[in-house]
Design a protein that fits this description.
Strand content: 25-35%
Number of helices: 0
Mean pLDDT: 96
Number of strands: 6
Structural class: mainly beta
Largest sheet: 3 strands, parallel
Helix content: under 10%
Shape: globular
């Protein structure tokens, strides 16, 4: 995700089976509903403290997600 992006929309990365790691830039404040849902190989996501809203089911069915870091 490129720096300068302010929100990750609904279903933006849903059902991306090849997605394994995500680093969200400091410019993002909103992660939308089901933004990463159904990403079975996503194991690691780094979320900056600039994110103030995480939508419902943002990470639902991410069966391999074992590490979520909130960066301060």
């Amino acid at each position: 995700i490129e720096n300068g992006v302010t929100s990750i929309g609904r279903y933006a990365f849903s059902n991306q089976v090849n997605l394994k790691r995500v680093t969200i830039p400091d410019s993002v404040t909103i992660i939308g509903h089901s933004a990463f849902s159904g990403c079975p190989n996503l194991t690691n996501i780094m979320i900056p403290d600039s994110v103030t809203i995480i939508g419902d089911d943002a990470f639902s069915n991410c069966l391999s997600l074992t590490n979520i870091e909130i960066l301060t």
